[in-house]
User: What shape does this take?
Amino acid sequence: MADLVKFTINGQELEAPAGMLVIEAAKQNGIEIPSFCYYEGYSLQAACRMCLVEVEKMPKMQVACTLPVSAGMVIRTETDQVKLARKSTLEFLLTNHPLDCPVCDKGGECELQDMVFRYGAGESRYTETKIHVNEQQWSPVVFYDAPRCILCFRCVRACDEGMGVSALGVINRGAQSLISPNMGDHLECDECGQCIDICPVGALTSGAYRYQTRPWEMEHVGTICTHCSDGCKTTLGVRNDEIVRGNNRDRSGVNGEFLCIKGRYAFDFSESAERLQSPMIRVNGKLEEVSWSKALETIGKKFAEVKAKGGKFGVIGSNHTTNEENYYLQKFARQGLGTNNIDHQRTGDVVTLVDALSGTTGRLAKTEDFYERKAVLVIGADLSAEHPFLAFQTRANYRHHEAHVYAVTAEAVREDNMATRSVRVAKGEELAGVEGLRDALAAETELVVVFDDSIKGDKVRSLVAFGESLGIPVSYCALVDYSNSRGAIDMGLVAELNPGFHATGTAGASVDEMLAANDLAALWVVGSNPLQNAKLAASRAFVVVQDLFLTETAQRADVVLPTASAYEKNGTVTNGCGEVQRLKRASATMGAKTDLEIIGLIAKEMGLAPLMGPWLPETVYAEIRKTVKGYDIPLPLVTIGAQQTAPVNGRVGVDSRPDLIRSSHDKLFTSGTLGRYSTVLNSVIEGRQSR
Amino acid sequence: MRYNPPSPLETPVLSRRFRLPNSQSIDTYLANDGYKAFEKATGMTQDEIIGEVKTSILRGRGGAGFPTGMKWSFVPRTSPKPKYIVVNADESEPGTCKDRLLIEFDPHQLIEGVLIAALAVGAQQGYIYIRGEFRYLIGVMDKAIDEAYAKGYLGDNIQGKGIKFHLATHSGAGAYECGEESALLESLEGKRGNPRIRPPFPAVAGCYQSPTILNNVETFCAVPSIILNGGLWFAGLGTPKNGGTRMFCLSGHVNKPGVYELPMGFNLMRMINEVGGGIRGGKKLKAVVPGGSSCPILKADECDLAMDYDTVAAAKSMLGSGGVVVLDEDTCMVKFALRIMRFYAHESCGWCIPCREGTTWLKKLLTRFHEGQGQRSDIVMIGDLSRNMLGRTFCPLGDAAAMPTIAIVEKFREEFEAHLDGKPCPHEKGSRLAA
Amino acid sequence: MTFSPELEARFEKFLAKYPADRKRSAVIPMLVYAQDETEAITQELIEEVAKRCGVTPLQVDEVVGFYSMLHKKPQGKYHVQVCTNISCLLVGGEELWNQACHKLGIGHKQTSADGRVSLEEVECMGACSWAPAVQVNYDFYHFVTPGQLDKLLDGLAAGKKPEEIADVKKVSC
Assistant: This one.
C-alpha cells in the first residue's frame, strides 16, 4: 500500500494513497466527478473529458481519471469553469445523439440522461443535421445503434481486457467513428452481453430485452444463476411475474458485474412455453393431467406400498435444487423410505479432495482467490468456456496483479494467451504435465489449483501431494458442473455419504446402479434427467418425476409433478468453491410447486410430516446449520454475501467412486437439459450453424 | 535544385547543399562536410553532445518549440529496454512544406542528425515516419539509407567504431493526427493514430513503450551543423532563446512564394515584402497565418514582428511549423475559417468528445453561415464553441481548430456580419453560394 | 493470397524492419503498398495482412478506416487529387477542384465510367509554397494553372499517360 498523502478537494482536506487517481480518491470521499469513459478495472482513456477538474498551479483543467493525487494538491470540482466544461461537453455529445429517449431501452437508466439532467443545459443550440447510421444486429443477443453511441470505448475494453475476446473494435475516423464487430457485419464471441451492460447509453442493446419494457416497470430481484457452478449473482428484472432481464449492475455477489450469456440471458428457460403446469398421471400408457391432490395421493399410496413390501427404492436428486431441498430429500429417502439408494449425477471429485486435505483448514480455494492469489494453475478444464466467471477472475488477476497463469490441458484454451506456461497433454496425462511445471510452480509464492474431472480418485491425492511438496501455500478447487452440484454432495445426495461428508456405512445404489437394477420397485427423480442417455432396466418400476419440462425421464414417469425453477424459489445453493449463497424468488409459474413443498406434501401423504418437519426453507436451513458441519452460518450472512463452508477436516473414509464422476463439460452455449429450453442459447447455436 | 528560386536574404545552413548538383547522393554529401559532425560526435560523450544541442538553443521545429537538448536529456541513461530514434516526417500542417525539401534534397543530413541523436542516448534503431502521400520521398530516403549502409554509416559496426545503428523508413497512410508524436508512435506500431495519454512521454515510454527521441525532420537536420560548428555558433544565428535558422514556407498571396531559410527572428513584414516580393497584384495585406493553419491569425497591423517563438507568442499566436500563409485584402475570412475547420473536422481522430463533435458542429455551422444562412447569434456561438474545445481536448488538435477560429471571429467580426441576412459574400463574385 | 514478386519482396523487407514481436508495425505500410496492386483493400487482403502480421482482421480493419489513403473502393487508374486547403485555396485550388469535377462529371471519391480517372478533394499535401498543387497517384504537380489541369484531364481521359501530356510536368523525381 502506498503512503497516504493529504490533498484537498473543494476545500475539504482529504487523504488517499499516493498515486491513486483523483477520480477514485474523490469517489472514496463521497465526491462525484462525472465520467463516461473511465471505468474501474479497465484501461484509462481520458477520452470523454467529462472529468475535467481544476488543479491549482496547473494552467489547464486536468482530467481526473488519469491524474494521480499527490501531496498538497488542491483540486476543485465544482467551479464555474468546471461546470461550464461539463455542460459544453454534454452539449457536444448531444449534437449527434438522437433524442429518441422515449423509445430507447436505456431511457430511465441512461448515464447520458442522468448527466444531462445534472450537469447539462436545458436547451440545445444545435440546429445542424445529425449524422445517421442504420441500426445493426450483430448477433441474436447484440444490437448496435450507432447514432446513440458516444464512443466511450467501454464495450471495446470489456470485450478485450475483461473477456479476452477482442471482438469489438473502432472503425472510421472522427465523427464517423463506429464500433465494429469482429466479423465485419456480425459478432463471433462469447455473447456474454458485457458490452451491452457496460454501455452507458442505448447504443448496444440486447436482443432478449429490447423494447420489452420500461426499466421502472420492473422489480429487481437478486438471486443466483442456476447454470454453472461459479455461483454468479444475477439481478433479475421482473415485470408481472415474468423475468425480462438479467444483469448485475449493483455489483453485489461474488461476480461483481460479470455475467456470461447464461447468467444474463438463459433465465429464459424459466419462461418457456414448454414448462409443465399441471401434474400428470399415466393412464392407459398415456400421461394425463390431474389435480395435485390426486397426483400426491397416488404417489403416497404407491410409495407406502413399496415401503411396506420392502421393495427397492431409488431416489435421484438434482444438481440445481437448493440445499434445503437436497437435505430434505435425502432425509426423506434415508429416514422416511429407509434407503441409502439416493444419489445425483456426480460431476467432480470434491469428496477425495476433502479427504486428501483432511487435517488442514483453509485449503479450499475461494472465488476471490482466483483474483487475489499470485498464481493460478488450471488443469483439464477449458475454463473460459466452462467456468466463465472463474476465468474472468483469473484474467483480471493477470491484468491487475500480473498473476502467473499456468494451463495444463488437452486442447488450446483462452488462458494460453496470458499463461506464463501452457502445457498440452493427451487426455489422462494431465498429472505428467503438471509435474513438468514443478520448478516453475515451486518458484511461486502461492498457488491456486483448479481441476476438472480429468483429475479424480487417486489422481486427486497425487495432485494434492504434488501441491504440498511445492513448499508454498496452495489452495484447491475441484470443479463441478452446475449451480448446486457442490451442495448436492454437501447435503448427502450421495449413496455413500450422509450430509457433511459422513460415511453412511453401507453404501446405497448409485444412479447407474439404480437404473441397472431389474428389481427396482420405485424410482423418484427430482430435477434430473438420467434417462436422457440411459435406459431404466426395471420396466415395471413406479417412476415419479419432478421437473420443469417433459424430459426423456419425465416421459417414462408414472407421475409427473411440475416444479418451480431456481428463479421461482427461496433457499440456498453452494457454488463450486463451497460458498453458500441465497436464492430469492423472482417469479412464479402457475401450477408449479417448489421441490421442497412437493417433498413435504408427499411426506404428508405418507404420514411422515412429523418426521420431516415443515417445508419452509428457513426451517430446513436451521436444521442444516445444526447437522451439517461447516454450514453453521447465519442466514443474514448468507444473504449479504457468499460465505464459504468449511467441510469436515477429518478423513471422509469412502470410495469416491471415480467411475461415476462425469462432467458434462457444458460450454458457453449449453447447459444440460435446462439449456435445451433456453431460446437465447438455442438461437446462438442455430445462428452459428447457419453461417 | 529546389522548387522556388532562393532569396539573397537567406542564411543557408540546413539548405546549403540544395543547390549542389546531385545533392541527394552520399558522394556529394561527403564532399561537402558530410558525416564530419558524426565523426566529431563519436569523440564526444553523451553529455557533451546533448550539452552542445542545449547550447544551440535549438527548439523543436515541428511546431511546439520545445528545447531539443532538454527533450533528449529526458531519455533515461540506463534502461533495460532498447532505445529508439523516431523522425517525424509526417509533415501535414496546412501551410508547411519544408520537411519535404529537406528529405528530397539532402537526405543524408537527416541520417547524420539521427545518427548523432542515437549516439547521444545510445539508441540502436531508428525509424523515419514519412507521410504516405510523400511516396517518392520514401524512395529517396530508402536510397540514401542504402548508400549509408554501403558506406558504413549505418549497420552493426559503423565506421569500424563498434557503433551499431539501424535505420528504416515507415510509410504513413494519410492522417494529420499522426503528426502528433504519441499518435505517430501508435501508428508506427500498426494501430489507429490515436494519441496516447501522457505522461509517460516518449522519452521514457515511446516507440514500443521504450525510451525514444522523437523530433521533426528539420530539428534533426539542424544537429550536424550544430555539432560541427558548435552550439554557440548556431545560437548566434538567431535571437536570444531562439537559436539558428528556420525553414519558412511562404505561401498565399505573395509574389514569390517559396521555402526560404531565414534566421530566427526575421521580421515578418520583411519576409513578405523583401523575400516574398510583396503582395500579388499590388493588393493590400489583410492578415498572416504565421506558423501553419493552427496558429491564430495576425492582422496586417500586427505583422511587424520578429519571427521567433517568443515574439510571436507575445502577439498571441505561434511560430508553429514555419508555414507563413499570407492573405490579401480580397480574402473572405468566413470562407478561410470554414476551410480551416473543414480540415480539422476531417482530421479529428474521434477519440475525445469536444474535438470530435466540436469540429464537426463548427464545420456545419460555418458552412451554413458562409452560404448566407447565418444568424447574428451564430457569430457568438462560433467563438463560444471554439472556446469550449480550447484546452479541454485530449491532444492539441482541438486547440489547433479552436485557436485560429477564435482569432478570426474576434479580429474579423465585421466580415461575419457582412454575411448575415442572406447577403452575398462580399468577396465572392457572382452567387453567394459559389462555395 | 498471392502478390507480385516485387510486392512480396517489399513485404519481406517491411517485416524485417521491426522487432520480431512487433510485426504489427508492418500493417499500415503493407496495406498502402498492397492496395496499389490489388486496386482496393478487400476482405481477403485484410485477412492476409492480419495473418502475416499476427493480428486479427478486426485490428487491420480498424486501421483501414482511420487512414484517408486506404480505400476499400477501387480508384481510377489515375487518381487525381486536388488540394483545396488554405494555401491552395488562396491561389485557386478550389477553382481547380470545381473545374475537375465539372470536366469529368464526377465528384469527390468518384471514378470515371471507364475507370481511368478518379477524383479526390484532398487536405494539405505539403506543396503550399508552390500552390495550387495537384497529385496524380503519387506524383506532384506544382503551380497548376486551369489550362494545365484541362490538358492533364483531357490527356488522361484520352488514354495518355501523364508523362505523355505536353506542358504538364510532374515535379518530383
Observations:
- The interface with chain A takes residues 43, 56-59, 61-62, 64-68 of chain C (CB under 8 Å).
